[in-house]
Amino acid sequence: MTGRIESRLAELGVALPTPAAAVANYLPFVTSGSLVFVSGQLPLVDGKVTVSGHLGADVSLEDGQSAARQCAINLLSQARLAAGGDLDRVKRLVRLGGFVASTPDFTDQPKVINGASDLMVAVLGDAGRHSRAAVGVASLPLNAAVEIEAVFELD
Q: Using CA atoms, how far apart are residues 50 and 39, in angstroms rounded to an integer?
């Protein structure tokens, strides 16, 4: 039987990938009580960064939003693993922390991270409404344009 969240993902045409393994001395997620802290996810598809560079220079706002959306897909993949394969256990998305590689004069980081926020609300409904930070940074791993971390609450 397919769960409610998995059905919603299918309706949206979103297939969750196999969660990425850690590439350094950290865990992809840590569970503490009912909270799951998911490490920063890059816009990876099949192990490759889909959008690289800097907003305000060589990456458009639309491509940045697409990168953020892919980060959200990867966050959901990690959350599914943390929830024992059942995304219906996600009670709410508590927080997103978004990092946007950008030039010093680029100030639309919140618009970029909306690519992730919008997907989370589309998938999780009201449980996807969250607190958030959207921060500009000089660079990100693998020259990714966006990296996003999350905190989920499970039932």
A: 19
Please list the rounded mean pLDDT of every run of 10 residues in the chain (155 residues). Answer: 90 97 95 98 97 98 98 98 98 98 98 98 98 98 98 98
Task: Indicate the class that CATH gives domain 4-12+39-154.
Answer: alpha beta
Beta-bridged to residue 89, according to DSSP, are none
Q: Answer yes or no: are the C-beta atoms of 28 and 41 closer than 8 Å.
A: no
- Burial bucket for residue 104 (CB in 10 Å: 0-12, 13-18, 19+): exposed
- Contact between 67 and 144 (Cβ < 8 Å): yes
Residue boundaries of the structural domains of the chain = 4-12+39-154
